[in-house]
Every structure is written in structure tokens, then in C-alpha cells.
Recover the amino acids of this structure.
């Protein structure tokens, strides 16, 4: 995932740059690593697994279409070989040529269908991925916002993001003002427990 710089962080940084920072105390300015929060949130791998399952289904169907296409090409080549046999009667040769044209049209249509399928489903998967990211990030940012209000923070900066100039949005910050681990505890407090594998019964 690309590093994320929240609109809140950008707006707050601009306020600091114009001199409003004189009203803020260092203890009220904290940082968070949104990239880490996204990757380590227990819902992220669950959503990613669902996306992979969808992608695998698309790939399986695409592979079947490609197998059908290869079969069509083989049949087309065979018909072309047959139509060129010199021993064929003129009327039979005409029938073979007609069969070749029909098979060629079917093969070309299947090729177009495969291209449309690939393009359409790639877009569908991309859209689903973006929706998944936006949904998870929205939940993370809501938690950060609530905790920041409850704790009285004036400013929260995403230290994983870069500015539009490609430089870090947070050049330096004490580790003591980083609230990432606190946020992760809240995000993962409802993480389902993984059942431990049962031990085999001991034989006497």
C-alpha cells in the first residue's frame, strides 16, 4: 500500500507553517504510522483473502476461456489444411472454405470476448480493492480521531506519508509522541482468536 498522508495532517501542517504553532504545546502533537496501522489491522488480511478468492475465480474462468480459444485455433488450422487438399472435388472444397470462414469468425469472436472479460474483470477487481482500502482506512481514521479528541491532542501527523514534493511529511519526531501502538491495541481488541491445533492422544 502506498504511504498515506491524511488531509487532516496536511491542513494542520499548513497551520503550523503560518505561525499558529505557537499556540500548541509539544505534548499535544503526536504522530501515527497509518501504513503500519493499515497493514497490521486484523481486518486487512481478511479483506485481502476475499479479494484473492475473487481474483482466483476470475483467473480460473479466464483460463477456461483460453483453453477453449486454443481448441478453436487448432480446429481452424485443421480445417485450413483440409481445404487445401488437391484431391477434393470443387464442391467439397467450397464447403471446406465456408467451414473455415465460419470457424474463423467464431475464433475471432471468442478472442474479443476474452479481451473484454480480462479488461472488465481487471477493472472490477481494482474497484473492489479501492473500496476495501477506503473502508478500512475510514475505520482507522475514525478511531484515531476519537482517541485524539478524548486525549486532548491538537494535532496528529501521519509519519508514513510524503508531501507532494516527495519528501517525508514528518522529518523528525520523538518516539514518545507516536501513538501507533496504542491505536493498534484498540483496532485489534476484537481480533478473533485462532484456535490452537489439538494435541494427538498419547498412546500407552
Amino acid at each position: 500500500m502506498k504511504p498515506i498522508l491524511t488531509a487532516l495532517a496536511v491542513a494542520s501542517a499548513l497551520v503550523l507553517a503560518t505561525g499558529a504553532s505557537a499556540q500548541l504545546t509539544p505534548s499535544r502533537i503526536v504522530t501515527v504510522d497509518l501504513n503500519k496501522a493499515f497493514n497490521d489491522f486484523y481486518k486487512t488480511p481478511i479483506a485481502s483473502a476475499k479479494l484473492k478468492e475473487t481474483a482466483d475465480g476470475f483467473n480460473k474462468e479466464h483460463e477456461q476461456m483460453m483453453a477453449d480459444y486454443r481448441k478453436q485455433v487448432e480446429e481452424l488450422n485443421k480445417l485450413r489444411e483440409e481445404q487445401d487438399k488437391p484431391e477434393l472435388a470443387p464442391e467439397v472444397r467450397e464447403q471446406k472454405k465456408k467451414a473455415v470462414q465460419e470457424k474463423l469468425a467464431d475464433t475471432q469472436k471468442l478472442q474479443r470476448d476474452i479481451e473484454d472479460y480480462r479488461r472488465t474483470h481487471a477493472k472490477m477487481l481494482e474497484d473492489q480493492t479501492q473500496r476495501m482500502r477506503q473502508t478500512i482506512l475510514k475505520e482507522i481514521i475514525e478511531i484515531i480521531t476519537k482517541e485524539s479528541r478524548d486525549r486532548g491532542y491538537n494535532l496528529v501527523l501521519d509519519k508514513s506519508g510524503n508531501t507532494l514534493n516527495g519528501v517525508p511529511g514528518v522529518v523528525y519526531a520523538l518516539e514518545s509522541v507516536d501513538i501507533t501502538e496504542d491505536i493498534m491495541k484498540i483496532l485489534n481488541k476484537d481480533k478473533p482468536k485462532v484456535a490452537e491445533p489439538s494435541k494427538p492422544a498419547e498412546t500407552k
